[in-house]
Amino acid sequence: MKRIFIPLTLVAVALLSTNCSNDFIEVAPTENIAEADLLTIYNNNDGAKSFVTAIYSNALSFSASSFSWNGLTSMTSDDADKGSDPGDSGTDKDKCDALTLDATSLSVQEVFETNYQGISKANIALNYLPRLDKADAAVVARLTGEAKFLRALMYFNLVRCYGGVPIVDHVPVPSSAEDTDMTLIRKSKEEVYKFIETDLLAAIAALPEKSGYAISDLGRATKGAAHALLAKVYLYQGNWQGVKDQCAAVTGYNLVTDYATIWREVGEDSVESIFEIRGYGGNPSQGIEGYMVSQGARGTSGWGWGFNTPTASLANSYEAGDVRRDATIVFAGETMWDGRVVSPLVANPRYNEKAYVSNTKETFNGDWETTKNIRVLRFAEVLLMQAEAANESGTGDVTGPLNRVRNRAGLANTTAVGQVALRAAIRAERRHELAFEHDRWFDIVRTGQAKSVMAADGKTFVEGKHELFPIPQKFITQANGKATQNPGY
Amino acid sequence: MRNFIFSFLALILLPAYMSGQVIKGKVLDKSGIGIPGAMIIADDSKTSADTDFDGNFIINAKVGEILKISMVGFDALSIPATANVMSVTLNESKDTELKEVVIIGYGSRKKSDNTGSISQLSATDITKTKVLNATQAIQGKAAGVQVIGTDVPGSAPSLIIRGIGTYGADRTPLFVVDGIPTKNINNLNSNDIASFDILKDASSLAIYGNQAANGVVIITTKKGKGDKTTVEYDGFYGVRTPLKTVKMAGSNRFAYYSDVAEQNTRFSTDQRYNTNWFDEITRLGMYSSNNLSISGASDKINYLFSLNYYDEKGVLDGLDFNRFTFRNNNDYKLSDKLKITQTLSGSISKSTPKPLSAFTSAYKQSPLVPVRYDNGRWGMPIIGADGQASTTGSLFNNVGNPVAQLNYFTEEQKNLLLQGSIGLEYKIFEELKFTSRVGVEYNTFKRFSYTPTRELWLAADPSRDVANYSASEPINELVTGRSDYFNWNFDNFLTYNKKFADIHDVEVTLGMSAQEFGSREELEVRGRNVPENSNYWSLNQSSAPSNNLVTRHVIGNQRNLIGYFARFQYTLMEKYLFTGTIRRDGSSQFGSDNKWGNFPSFGLGWVLSKENFLAESETINFLKLRGGWGRLGNQNVPINQQTFSSGAGLGYDFGGSLYSGTTIGAFIDPTLGWEITDETSVGLDFKAIENKLSGSFDWYDKNTSNVILNVTPPLTVGTGATPAHAGEISNTGYEVSLRWDDNINDDLKYWIGANYSNNKNEVSKVYNPLAIRQNGGSINNGQFTKRLEVGEPLGSFYLFEVAGYDANGNFTYFDKDGGITSNPVETDRKFFGSSLPTYYYGMNLGFEYKNIDFSVDAYGVGGNKVYNGKKAQRFGNENIEASIATDFWTPTNTTAGNPAPFNSVPLSSDYYLESGAFLRVNNITLGYTLPKITNSVSAVRIYASAINPFISQKFTGYSPELNNDGDPMGLQGIELDAYPTLSSFIIGANVKF
C-alpha cells in the first residue's frame, strides 16, 4: 500500500503548491499593450509622437468635426438650413435650424463630449511625455507644444459653444475629491479664455514655424498656427492690440490666387493654409467621418444625405462678380468643376461645395472617410482679423488687408468709408470669405448681430439665451448639483 | 506543474494488487440480463470487484466465503462463493427512488441522497423537439430554467437559471460536456446526449466556484452498451413558416396616410404597385437531420460512433445553415482497477448569414415601391410628379430595397470545433478512486463577405448609369477572415466512499482543476475588384492589388483559471443528509491582490419518509426536505489590467502618411474582481400514491452583492466607462414541479406534468452614483427605451406615458407631476415593467397505447413587457401597419387608437409597449412503432411532430419571444431586426438494427 501513498502525497503537494498555481494565473496581455510596458515600448520618439497623434485623430470623428459640429456652427446660422428631405430630421438638426435645441439634443451633447474626449487625450499625452526620457528632449518639448495647441483649440470650441466650462487640465484621479470637483464645477468664461491663452503662449514658445518641420511632419501644429489661434481668441474678447500683435507674428503665409482651389485637394497645405484637420483618404482611410457624404447632394444624381445647405439669403448676398459664390455653393442643375452634372431633380436647390470631394479628379477611397481636410485657420482670416482689429481700435491699416481678400475674390477695393461702414464691410467679407467654415454662428453672436440677422432669416434669437448652447443634460445629471445650466434652458 | 505531472504519471503505472483464489460469476436481473457495475465484496479476503458490462465478475476469495453483492436500485444479497461459475439474481428494489442518479460536479449521487436542487432531463426529453441546439429543446421542461428561444438558423438560445444576477459580466451558464467546460453547445448533436443535468442551487454549484454564478449544465453523452452491436438511424424532414405575421398597410392606404402626414398630395391614392415586402424577402423554410450511430460493448471496451447532418434553409431568403457532426466515445477497461475513457467529437458548420435588419426594412419600406421597375432596375422609394413610383423624382424615405439588400449581401461562415478528452479512473482500493481527465477544444473559423459596390451604387438610384461610376471607386470588395483558439482543461480528483457500521455513509471528494482559455487569434484581409465568379474570390485574383489590406490582426487575451475543491457528503441511516463543499479559485483576469477567492457551501437533507411516522404511509412513498447555502463567483468579467488603446483607428495623417496613435480609452478600477453571489434555498421532493404522483418544490433567495456596472465618468473626463463593483442584484423565487404517471393496463400508460417558476429580479442597490441611470435598449432612431435603476428589475422599460392627443392629434404626455405636456423632458419618464418575465411555466402530457405514442408540450411566460421597436421607426414616410392606417386621429375622429399621421422620430412611450405574455404549444408528437418485420431490424418508429403550432399572445408583432442579443439591457424584449418565431411540421423515422 505504501507504493500508492507516496505518489498520492506527491500529487497532494503539487496540487497545493501555491508557486506553481500563482505562475499559472499570471498571463501577459496580448490584445492591448499594458500600461506597465510604457517604458519598454513607448520610450522613444515614435512612442512619444503616438500619444499626440491620438489627440489630432480625435478631430476626425463624426461628432467632432462633421454632423453635430455642422449642426451647432452652421445650420443654426442664417447661412445654412438643415437641408435634406423635410421628413429627415438628422436626429435633431431640425432643432439646430429652428433654434429650438434643448439640453437633451444629441448635437449639444456630442460636441461637448467629443471635445472633452480630445482634451482627455491631450492630458494623457501631457502625463506620459515627461516620463519618456529616452525620446529626444527637443521632440518631447515640441510634442508638448502641439498637445497644448490642440487642447487650446478644443477649449476654444467649448467656450464659444457653452461659455464657462470645467477646466480639466490633467488626468483626474477618480478617488480625489479635488479632481472630481475639477471635472464637475464650471469655471467662468474669462478663466477658460485665460487657460486657453496660457496653453497657446506655451505652444508658441515650443513650436517651430511651418518651415521648421520636415515634409513628413507636414500638418503638425506650428508657431504660426498658435499665433493665429491666439489672435482669434483675443478677437472674441475684443483685445484688439492682442489681435494685431498676434496677427503680425503670423509670417510666411500668403493668399493663394484662385479662391476656388482652397477647399480642393490641390489647395491642401497651400501657402495660405495655417492649420487643417487632415483627412487621410488612403488605405485604410482615416478621414473626417461623414463630412462629405452628410453634406453631399441628395436624390437623383446625388452623392450624399443633403444636410447643411446654403440658404437663399447667402446665395443672394454676394456682390456681382464675387468668385466665392460659385466656389462655395453647388447649385442644382449645374456642372461642377470636375465635370459632374448635378441633376435639377436633387432634393435641395443648393449644397455646400466646400465639403465636396471629386471621385474623378481627386484622391477618392469611399465617401465616409475622405481625403478632405477642414481648413481651420487660413491666412485670409488673419487679414480679416487685422482689418477688424484696426477698425475697432481706430489705429492701423483697415482697408489694406481687407482689399487683399476682396481683390483675390475678383472684387474691387472696398468703397466703405468710416468705422461703421467699414465694420459692415468687414462683417460681410467674413461671411463670404469664410462661409461654411464653421464660424458664421459664432461671428453673429460675437458681434451682437445675431438677433437681427436671425430675424431676417425668419428665426427667433432670444437674447440672454441663444448666445450659448445648453450644457448637456447628461452632464448636469452627472454633476448632481455641482454644475449649473446656461440661462434660458 | 512539472512535479505534479510526474506524480500523476507514476500513479498510472502502479502495478495491480492481486492475491487469493479466483471466483467467477455473473450477476443478473430477474429477466436474466446481466447487471453491469454491481459491487461484490469478500469481507474475509478483503477484496472486492465490479461486474463488467455483461454482469460478469472475477474476485479473489475463498470458496464458501460470504460475498456481499449490491447494486443501486436492487436489494443487496449475501451468498457463499462457489468454485463453479456463480449465477446470482438480484431483485429490483421496491424503492424506485434508489435507482435514480443525478450527476453532480466531479461525480454522481443517488437522487435520494442528494441535498441540492438539480433538474435532470433525459435523452428523450431532448430529442423530441427537433432543434439544432439542445438548450432550446428543454424549454418548459425544467422549473427554474428559463430558455429564451430563437429560430435564427445556427443561433443559440439564452438559458437563464434562477434569474439574471449580473449586468456587465457574462450571463451564460457553464456547460460541462463530458468534463469539458464550454460556453456554447451549438456543436453538440442532440442525439448524442444521454443526460442533461442542470445544477440550480448554490449548494450544488459551489464546487464550480467562480464559474458557477450563472448555473452549470452537466451534459453526459451516450456510451455503447449491450453485447450486440446496435446500429441506429434517426432522420426527419420538416417545413417551417412564421408562426405569426403582421398585416401592413397597402400602397393606397400608405399614400393616403403619408399625404395626411405631409399635408399635401405628393402620393397618389391610386397606386400602380402594391408590394408585400415581407413575402418578397421570405420563403418556406425547410430543415432536415440524418443521424446514424453504431454502438456496443464487449468485456473490455464499449464504443459509440455517431454521425449527424443537419441542414436548414431559413425563412429569410438565402439564409442557410448546415452542420455535420461526428462523435466517438470509447471506454477501455484495462484491468479491474483501471479504466480509460475517451471522447472525441467534431462539428463542421457552414452558414450564409443574411442581415436580419431586412425584416425591419421590409416592415418600413413603402408598398408603393416595386421590387423592380419594368425596366428591370431595383425599385427605390422615389415618387414621380404623378404621385406614383418612378425612376426619377424625389426620394421620399431613407429605406433601401429589402430584396436588393438581401440579394447583394453575400457572406459565408465556416466553423470547425473539435472537442476531445482522455480520462482515467483508477481504483486505488475499494473505497478510494482516482479520476484524472484532460479535455481539449480547438476551434477554427473562416468567413468571407463579398460586396458588389458598383451594383449597390446602381441599385440606390435607378437613374444611374454604369458609365458614370467613378473609376476610383471599387467595383466590389472582398473581406475574408480567420480566427482560431485552443482551450484545454485538466481535472484530477480523488473520491473516497465508505459505509461505516451500516449507517454512516461517507463520501469525500478532493481535487483540482486547471483551465486555459487560449488566445483567439483573428486575421481579416480586404481586397477590391475580384472576379464576379465566387470560385475566384481570393485576394490573389484582385485586379487592384494595391488596395489589398490587412484590416485586422488581433491576438485576444488568454485566460487561465485554477481551482482546488473538496466535498464531504454524509448520510446517516439513509435519513439525514449533509453535504459541504469548498472551492478555492484563482483567475488571471484580476490584479495581483484580487486573484484568489473562496467559495463554500453546505446542504442539509432529511428523508422524512424513512422516519417511523411516515414509513408505513400508503399515500406518501417518499418525502425529503432539503436546504442549503452557498457562495458562487462569476470570473468572466472584463479583464482588469490597464492597457493602452492604439492603432490606425487613433491614427492621423502627417505629410501624406498615416501614423498610429496611442491613448487610454478607459481607466480600469484596480479593485475589480469576480462577482459574488450568495444563495439560500430550501426545497422538498416527494412521491405519493404508489409513486404515481411525484413532484418538488423549491424556494430560493439569491443575491449578487458586488455587481459590476459600467461606471460612466462625467462627460468632462473624456474617457470611456469603467467596469467596477457598484451594486447589488437580487433574484428571489420559487419553483413547483408535479408529474402524474400511471399505467392503466399493460397496453396503456399516460403521464401529465406541469412546472411553474416565479422569479423576482431587482437591482436592489447601486452604491456608486455614477453607475445608475444607465440607459439601454437603443432602437436605432436616437431613442432609448430601458434604464438601470435601483428598485427596478433589469431590463426595465423607461418611457414617456401617453396622456392623449393635442388639438392636432399629436401625442401629449404626462409630466412627472401628473400634468400634461407636448414636450416632456427626460425626468417625466416612468418605469413600465421589464422585458424579463416574472413567471414562466411548462406543461406536458402524453400517452402510450400499444404501438402508439403521443405527447404534447406547452410553454408560457408572463409578467414581462415587449417593446414594438419596429413600429417606432416611422419618421420619414416609412410604412405603417394596416391597423394604424385605418384608425388614426382626424379632426372628426379624435378618439382614434392612433395619433394623427406624423413624420418625426416618435418619443419612446408606452404606446409602443405591449404585454409579452404568451402561451405556446411547443410540440405535439405522434409516433407509431411498427411491429417487428424481420430479425435484422429490431425496431422501427415513425413519427410526426408539430413544433410551435399554436400560440396565444397579446403582442401585435411577430413574436413576443425576443432573445435578440440576449442582453436584458440591450435589445432583448424589443422587436427590431428580429427573426420571427417559426412553426414547423416534421415527419421522421427511427430505425434500430
UniProtKB/TrEMBL annotation, chain A:
It is found in: Cell outer membrane. GO terms for cellular component: cell outer membrane. Residues 1-22 form the signal peptide. CDD domains: SusD. This is RagB/SusD family nutrient uptake outer membrane protein. It comes from Flavobacterium psychrolimnae. Pfam families: SusD-like_3, SusD_RagB. The keyword Transferase does not apply. Keywords: Cell outer membrane, Membrane, Signal.
TrEMBL record, chain B:
InterPro entries: Beta-barrel_TonB_sf, CarboxyPept-like_regulatory, Plug_dom, Plug_dom_sf, TonB-dep_OMP_SusC/RagA, TonB-dep_OMP_SusC/RagA_CS, TonB-dep_rcpt-like. The keyword Iron-sulfur does not apply. The keyword Transport applies. Belongs to the TonB-dependent receptor family. One of its GO terms (cellular component) is cell outer membrane. This is SusC/RagA family TonB-linked outer membrane protein. It is a multi-pass membrane protein. Keywords: Cell outer membrane, Membrane, Transmembrane, Transmembrane beta strand, Transport. It is found in: Cell outer membrane. It comes from Flavobacterium psychrolimnae. Residues 111-216 form the TonB-dependent receptor plug domain. Its main location: membrane. NCBIfam families: OMP_RagA_SusC, SusC_RagA_signa. It holds the Pfam family CarbopepD_reg_2. SUPFAM superfamilies: Carboxypeptidase regulatory domain-like, Porins.
